[in-house]
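Reply to dn_fold:

You asked what the input looked like. This is it:
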Amino acid sequence: MKISEVSVYQSASRSLRRVFLAAALSVAVAASAVATEATPAVHASSKTGVQYGKAWQTGSLPKGVSKKAIDALVNAAMGDKKNRTRVRSVVIVKSDNTGDKIVYEKYHPLDKRDQPNDTMSISKSVTSALIGMLIGDGKLTLDQKAPVAAWSDPADPRNAITIRQLLHMATGLQWTEDYFDPNSSTLAMLRAPIASEYAASRPLESTPGAVFEYNSGNSAILMGIVTDSLGGVAATDAYIKARLLDPLGIKSAQFQRDSTGRIVGFMGINMSARDLARFGLLYLNDGVWGGKRLLPDGWVAFSKTASPTSPKYAGHWWTYKDGFEAEGFYGQLVLVSNSKKLIIVVTTALEGNAGAQWTKATGLREQLYALFPAA
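and this is what came back:
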């Protein structure tokens, strides 16, 4: 079954969540320790702040932006203190010549500042970053044939699939992105011993590069390529820590894994809202962190540029006005706005109707975005 770009977020209900979580129970999760950050009462400067090994600093809202107006929107989305179908967290970061500061932050009473959030498909954007790093290292190229063992026979039509097409969700692989049907491709992949191998086993239903079809299997395949290119699970874990988590100061990350210990990559790269803001800030800074380039030159531009087969989907990020957004099921969002020098993080509980949660989160993001002026 083919689906539209966002219908996966708009058509689920509580019964979907039960099916989805039941399948996910069989997947091992490895978690790093969660570190508590204290917010120092100092002003950010060019070399004191989150990009230079310091904790997040707080700042004032821009002139003309009302905290009272933001509170009203956020409080309505979060609901009462026992609300299960809630927005869990909102973090807003503004970047300017004095540094990068949290200008607004709020958590629902049922949630904590440093707890990892279920990021769902925001994980796909993290997987894309890892692919970008390997391209920068010279281990991969965008337009090479994807190094997938199951596709190695030149007579196999899947042999033509490129890394670019995987990132653009345009592989042509047969896929059912459905969370109601227990026989769907996505749930079968969750149950498979090796998620990336299940995804790669699917036959073609269209010519690679011709049609956009949202397919979590593409992200699993990309994460499989990362793992194989680096030489296995231990080497991959070390690479992610050394090249992404440690430089950004991300302490809360957890990784959902298949039964072999491999990170699945299409979901389950979970972290706190503050750490999600760090990841967004890396992209606002064009892949540079504390003066050091972590993502290759041009990678962020590729990541936010609409693909040839969809005006809404880019390189494992979604397009959004002047910027771009990492999006996850039930309304997990990391918005990066270039013109406003702004990052908005919204996370929600995986409760109730998924479409309603998605609408709540995206509506809140839209209203918050509108309050901030251009930089």
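The mean pLDDT is 90.
Hope that clears it up.
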